């Protein structure tokens, strides 16, 4: 299933930005559930069906979103629309602080937050006992977390997951941080920090021991932010320690679950030279690395109108091969 970008989206930046801003976004009605976490916090899950109908389904599509994403992100809406269209139950699992309300505890979320998946996925399967198949998708940051969890779990992951797709996962976090610190990519960095920094400031006001308020406010790139926030708040020595331990690339050889990686080689967040080779991933991992697509772009044109149906079709096709 080849991807070809519209001729009038010539590079990774246009394919990323136009897909997110101008492509048709489906309308999806969500039904929110709040789960309390083992450490006295909460996460919000947005299901495509109301609570009383969850046990009507045998197939579940689970989505873990990207950095500062949500169930309203363009890719979330497209993937959840597809889940409904093929008769599956869909759910978008929000990382902490991403559902519209900052979470309660001093911790936030990060690219290596596989411990979160390790309690969410078993609970989903246990909460909906009618499920026969669970297919999991991770986008960008969520894709890195998913791949890391799959590698950590090895053959045990099959207890909870039948197949998985990771989309535009920045599996080399150091390369991604370097990329986002230069050139036009600083536009993306400013966009992310415009929400990450205020949420972090809010936490420091509640928990002053978390850090220096003025230094966090002055963050200019992810090296600053990860050194001041991500690393110390989540048990890493510094940003480099966080990147090394959380990058999914080092876990790919241990994945036993049928998994598809979809990454464009012109992804401005992490270029194709940092994608894993065939030898750097297990036989369970299939690689789909088209030359075009941008970062979670992959929009397709119908005349001058843009649609987001390519990624959902790829996911559905892969899941159907692993029923």
How would you portray this structure in words?
By secondary structure, the protein is α/β, with parallel strands linked by helices. It is 36% helix and 15% strand. The chain has ten helices and ten strands. It has helices at residues 12-22, 74-85, 114-127, 141-153, 173-180, 186-206, 213-217, 222-233, 239-246, 310-320; strands spanning 31-36, 42-47, 59-64, 89-93, 133-139, 163-167, 259-262, 285-288, 300-302, 305-307. The strands form two sheets. An eight-stranded mixed sheet has the order 1-2-4-3-5-6-7-8. The protein has a two-stranded antiparallel ribbon with strand order 9-10. Strand 1 (31-36) and strand 2 form a beta hairpin. The radius of gyration is 19 Å and the shape is globular. The mean pLDDT is 97.
Radius of gyration: 19 Å
Q: What is the subunit organization of this protein? A: single chain
Total beta-strand segments: 10
Element order, helices and strands? HEEEHEHEHEHHHHHEEEEH
Sequence stretches where pLDDT stays below 50 over 5 or more residues: none
Distance between the termini: 19 Å
The biggest sheet amounts to: 8 strands, mixed
Mean pLDDT: 97
Content of β-strand: 15-25%
Helix content: 25-40%
Strand order of the largest sheet: 1-2-4-3-5-6-7-8
Structural class estimated from helices and strands: alpha/beta
Shape: globular
Number of helices: 10
């Amino acid at each position: 299933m080849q991807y070809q970008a519209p001729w009038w989206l010539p590079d990774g930046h246009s394919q990323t930005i136009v897909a997110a801003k101008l492509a048709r976004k489906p309308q999806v009605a969500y039904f929110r559930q709040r789960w309390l976490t083992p450490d006295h916090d909460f996460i919000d899950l947005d299901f495509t069906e109301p609570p009383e109908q969850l046990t009507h389904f045998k197939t579940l599509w689970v989505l873990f979103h990207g950095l500062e994403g949500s169930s309203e992100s363009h890719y979330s809406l497209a993937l959840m629309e597809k889940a409904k269209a093929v008769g599956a139950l869909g759910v978008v699992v929000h990382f902490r602080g991403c559902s519209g309300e900052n979470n309660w505890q001093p911790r936030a979320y990060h690219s290596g937050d596989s411990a979160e998946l390790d309690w969410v996925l078993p609970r989903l399967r246990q909460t909906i006992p009618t499920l026969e198949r669970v297919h999991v998708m991770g986008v960008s940051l969520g894709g890195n977390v998913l791949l890391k969890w799959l590698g950590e779990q090895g053959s045990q992951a099959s207890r909870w997951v039948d197949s998985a797709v990771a989309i535009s996962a920045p599996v080399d976090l150091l390369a991604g941080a370097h990329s986002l610190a230069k050139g036009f990519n600083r536009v993306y960095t400013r966009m992310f920090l415009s929400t990450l920094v205020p949420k972090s400031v809010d936490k420091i006001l509640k928990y002053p021991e978390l850090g220096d308020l003025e230094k966090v406010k002055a963050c200019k790139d992810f090296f600053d932010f990860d050194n001041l926030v991500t690393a110390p708040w989540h048990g890493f020595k510094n940003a480099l320690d966080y990147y090394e331990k959380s990058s999914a690339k080092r876990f790919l050889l241990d994945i036993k679950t049928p998994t598809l990686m979809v990454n464009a080689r012109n992804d401005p967040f992490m270029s194709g030279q940092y994608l894993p080779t065939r030898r750097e991933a297990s036989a369970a991992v299939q690689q789909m690395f088209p030359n075009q697509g941008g970062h979670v772009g992959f929009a397709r044109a119908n005349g001058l109108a843009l649609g987001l149906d390519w990624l959902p079709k790829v996911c559905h096709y892969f899941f159907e091969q692993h029923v």
